[in-house]
Specification:
Blueprint: E1 2-7, E2 10-13, E3 18-26, E4 33-39, E5 46-51, E6 58-60, E7 68-73, E8 78-83, E9 92-99, E10 113-114, E11 118-123
Parallel strand pairs: 2-11
Antiparallel strand pairs: 1-3, 3-8, 4-5, 4-9, 5-6, 7-8, 9-10, 9-11
């Protein structure tokens, strides 16, 4: 079992930056592949980024590529999402997730554990 708690969301103006964190507890964090997803009202939860347990494999959704950076600190059991050049369309609840597979994946159904989410609001 793994418990995940997101933090770092808030209100930011377009063009600004936020850094989200996801603190993990339970099984050893370093054994899990981690991902970030986001969801807005009336929309399906969409993939943002994923990172393997070693950090050697990283994937981004095309719309986030070049603006968002996913990273992890296994010693601190923490996942991060650095978001730069934020746009109003980035407004969403952001969720971290974990799976037991060795490879990073963008497939939502392959993630076993989810946090409660943190709200990000980007104003114009």
């Amino acid at each position: 079992q793994v418990q995940l708690v997101e933090s770092g969301g808030g209100l930011v103006q377009a063009g600004g930056s936020l850094r989200l964190s996801c603190a993990a507890s339970g099984r050893t964090f370093s054994t899990y592949t981690m991902g970030w997803f986001r969801q807005t009202p009336g929309k399906e939860r969409e993939f943002v980024a994923a990172i393997s347990w070693s950090g050697g494999s990283i994937y981004y959704a095309d719309r986030m590529k070049g603006r968002f950076t996913i990273s992890r600190d296994n010693a601190k059991n923490t996942l991060y999402l650095q978001m730069n050049s934020l746009k109003p369309e980035d407004t969403a609840v952001y969720y971290c997730a974990a799976n037991v597979l060795p490879a990073a994946t963008m497939a939502r159904n392959l993630y076993d554990y989810w946090g409660q989410g943190t709200q990000v609001t980007v104003s114009s």
